[in-house]
Design a protein that fits this description.
It is a single chain. This protein is 37% helix and 19% strand. It is an alpha/beta fold and 189 residues long. The chain has a single domain, classed as 3-Layer(aba) Sandwich (Rossmann fold). The strands form 2 sheets. It has a 6-stranded parallel sheet, with helices on both faces. Strands 5-6 form a two-stranded antiparallel sheet. The longest helix has 14 residues.
């Protein structure tokens, strides 16, 4: 079962979520895909995802997270002993998002929301000093990421499978090239 976790100001309507869902549906795996609009509160987001995983106890979870979703995917992979694919992950989410306190608009839904110091504190509580069992992770980064320093992610996930692509941007432009490999990594192929 793949749980796609979108990033900050993103949504299930993002091009990556749609691309992965369409590829899986084309292979008859649409029932093995989950992606919902995550709450602004990190604590609420993690609770929502954990409830979704608990409802599908019959299927081993693989988390695919982009940016902030990559941070969440790491937290959940550690807690649930699961696999995770991390796409330009926000490794230092509490520090990075602290700069973004205030009002925002979701890029896909148009919803207005406020990122508060309470949300940053929730991220700090979720933050992990290091990952265990790096073999359960696959890191996908592009060196042209204008939002996050890809080298921080490479250092964080030492020992994990790592795909570092030159150029690109924070959206991870080469994502369509890896759809089938992601499905295989999740042991769904």
């Amino acid at each position: 079962m793949i749980y796609y976790l979108h990033g900050f100001t993103s949504a299930p309507a993002s091009w990556k979520a749609r691309a992965l869902h369409e590829r899986m549906a084309g292979r008859g795996l649409q029932d093995a895909f989950w992606c919902e609009q995550l709450p602004v509160s990190p604590k609420a987001a993690i609770s929502m995802i954990e409830a979704a995983v608990a409802a599908r106890r019959d299927a081993a979870p693989t988390f695919v997270g982009s940016s902030l979703g990559g941070f969440y995917a790491t937290c959940l992979a550690e807690k649930l002993d699961a696999k995770a694919v991390l796409i330009n992950p926000a490794v230092l989410a509490p520090l990075v998002l602290e700069k973004w306190l205030g009002e925002h608009e979701n890029l896909y839904t148009g919803e207005h929301f406020v990122l508060t110091p309470t949300h940053i504190e929730e991220l700090r509580r979720l933050d992990l000093p290091a990952v265990t069992r790096p073999e359960r992770y696959w890191l996908l980064v592009e060196t042209g990421d204008e939002t996050l320093d890809w080298r921080v992610a490479v250092a964080r996930y030492v020992g994990a499978r790592q795909t570092v692509c030159e150029g690109g941007d924070h959206s991870f432009t080469r994502f369509p090239d890896y759809l089938d490999e992601i499905v295989a990594f999740a042991a769904l192929a």
